[in-house]
Amino acid sequence: MKHPLVNLHRGVPARRDPGDLPRNRRPSLLFRLLSDEGVQPAGKGELGRDHHMALVEAALFTADEPLSLRRLMTVTGIGDVAEIQSAIRRLQNLYEKGQSAFQAEELAGGFQLLTRPQLHPRLIRLRQTSSEIRLSPAARETLTIIAYRQPIMRADIENIRGVQCGDILRLLMERGLVRIAGRHPSLGRPVLYGTTKKFLQLFGLNSLQDLPEVHP
Length: 216
What we know:
Arc Repressor Mutant, subunit A, two-stranded antiparallel ribbon
C-alpha cells in the first residue's frame, strides 16, 4: 500500500551566517550577546527583551538546527532549565502579540526560529533547494513506509513496494534521513531501518507521533 508522504515543512529557518556580514560593520547585538556577558539588553517597552530572553533569541536566530533545552543552557550560560522554558514561552508570546514574521517552534526534540507558515510560499523563492532533499517518488514512498512502519526490515519494505529497494535505502541513509535502528531477532538477524532526527526536522515534526494519520 502506498502512503503519499505529505510535505509537512512549516517554515524556512531564520538563520544567517555571520561571515556574510559586511567587513566594515560589527556583528549585530544578537550575535555579540553570546560572546559578551557584559551586554545587558534594556528590554524596554511591551515587546522588549530581558537579558535571558535576548540570549535565547540570539541562540535560536544563529542556529541552523533545532536546539534542545540542554543545548540552549550550554550556549547561553543560563543554568536553570525552567528559566530557558520561560524565556521561550515569553518569546513565543511576543512574536504572537507583535504579529512577527517569526515563531519559536518546538521541532525534532528542540526549538528553532522559523518563519510563519503563511509566508513560506513567497520566501521559498529566496531559498536554494538543496539537492540532498530532492527525492524521487520511489524514494519518498520508501521513506514513508519506513516512517510509519519502523523499525522495519528491508524484506518487509520490498514486500510492500513489490520491488527491490537496496539502492534507495542506501541513498536515504547517505542523505541522513534513514538509519539502522537495530537488528531483527529472526534467523540471520537482518537489519532494521528507522528514520532520523533530520527526517523530523525536514518535515516539521517534533516526534513520530506527529505524523499524519493514514487511513486504509
